Amino acid sequence: MDDGRRASPDMLRSDFLEFSSRHGAKNPKTFSMYAGKRSTDTQSFARSIALALAAAVVFVFLAGMYWKQPHPCQEPVTYRIGHVDPRFGLSRKEAAEAVGDAASIWEKATRLDLFRQEPKGIVEISFVYDYRQEAADKLKGISGSIDNTKSSYDTLKARYENLKAEYEQKQASLSEDIDSYNARMQALKAEHDAASRHGGLPEDIYDRLMAEKEFLDSLHESLEARRGELNTAVENMNSLVEAINEIAQHLNLEVVNYNRTGEKLREEFSEGLYEKRNGRQTITIFHFTNRDHLIRVMAHELGHALGLSHNDNPDALMYRLNRSDSLELTKEDIAALQKRCTGD
Q1: Domain check: are 116 and 154 in the same one?
Q2: Which of 130, 142, 262, 288 could form a disulfide with 293 if both were Cys (CB 3.0 to 4.6 A apart)?
Q3: Whole-structure pTM value
Q4: Are residues 292 and 336 in the same domain?
Q5: pLDDT at position 73, please?
Q6: Statement to judge: residues 162 and 102 lie in one domain
Q7: Do residues 33 and 100 share a domain?
Q8: How far apart, in whole angstroms, are the C-alpha atoms of residue 158 and residue 287?
Q9: Cα(268)–Cα(289) distance, rounded to whole angstroms?
């Protein structure tokens, strides 16, 4: 078109048909379908390239994360002090110092900084006061100081047997007196109701019934006081059983089976617990008798935070039960730590 006229849609279509004919296109439909196919192939190829690039980026990112991940012992495990129940009589500063001393037990073996306290440390360390520490505190008032010896075990077991016999005797006596009280209460009510149905109570009967009621009210208070004493005796026996079984674990002696408020007493007295759950790491301390005991319990849980498992030496820090008073690592503890740090 070179006559200067403005091209109309029909004129453009005519020129296009002529161009198609000259270049071998049988019809505009065929050309259009071919062009559409090339467009689809190009888009598919582009998508493949995009997916490949995305996969490469993800791979590089994950590889970078892996390469940046520190090997065990290369970077310290960070921790922070969480809740410290005041009933332990332990300040947050004292708790932190105990954790530091426990950490140094492991650090001396490697001469590395394995732990570091930080405000946002990964491992939260808390002190939870429950039946375990309560039992130990209660024993101070009923049996004095104890230690993990056969002598303490025998003394506490004898004390428990005496308390148990005394409890059973008092419980039987209380049960009889309660039955007697209930019978007298029923008789008093029956006599009162019978007299009321016959037009009221004569003064002498009224005075006698009121005197009986006052006596029974006083008896009721006495029975409740005796019930309270028995409950205290049960708590004391629970505490003794806790202590006996803790010592039994240390010395591999027979544990005492005793129903504690409807449930069998735990056979293993857990003094501390390390947990890794839902992306959170925690250490919880439940029980200790003195500072050295606390440091040993804490060191055991810090060992778990390093990735160490239990070993089979009863004297080892990483034995499943706390049977030793030593604050030194055994050869089994050191071997496990070295293996963990070297990745062998």
Answers
A1: no
A2: 288
A3: 0.52
A4: yes
A5: 85
A6: no
A7: no
A8: 24
A9: 17
Answer whether residue 248 is part of any domain.
Answer: no
> What's the CA gap between 247 and 323, in Å, rounded?
8
Burial 212-222 (b: 16+ CB within 10 A, else e): beeebeebeee
**Looking at the domain assignment, is residue 48 inside a domain?**
yes
Query: Predicted confidence band at 57 (pLDDT cuts at 50, 70, 90)?
Result: low
Q: CA 74, CA 84: separation in Å to the nearest integer?
A: 30
How many other CB atoms sit within 10 Å of the CB of residue 115? 21
Number of structural domains found in the chain: 3
Residue 27 pLDDT more than 70? no
Is residue 252 one of the residues assigned to a domain? no
Q: Are residues 232 and 167 in the same domain?
A: yes
* Cα gap 122→172, rounded to integer Å: 55
CA atoms within 13 A on the CB side of 109: 24
DSSP per-residue codes, 232-300: HHHHHHHHHHHHHHHHHHHHT-PPPP-EETTEEPPSS---EEEEEETTEEEEEE---SSHHHHHHHHHH
135 in a structural domain = no
Q: How far is residue 332's CA from residue 313's CA, in Å, rounded to a whole number? A: 7
Domain that holds residue 62: 9-68
pLDDT digits (tens, 9 = 90+) for 262-307: 333 333 447 899 999 888 999 999 888 889 999 999 999 999 999 9
The three-point CA angle 220-224-229 to 5° equals 145
CATH code at 280? 3.40.390.10
Q: How many CB atoms lie within 10 A of CB 290?
A: 10
Sequence-ordered alpha helix ranges (H) in 120-202: 131-142, 150-197
Integer Cα distance of 190 and 197 in angstroms:
11
Q: Are 118 and 81 in contact (CB under 8 A)?
A: no
Q: What is the average pLDDT value for the chain, to the nearest integer? A: 77
Residue in the block written with tokens 């190009």: 42
State the CB neighbour count (10 A cutoff) for residue 270.
13
DSSP 127: E
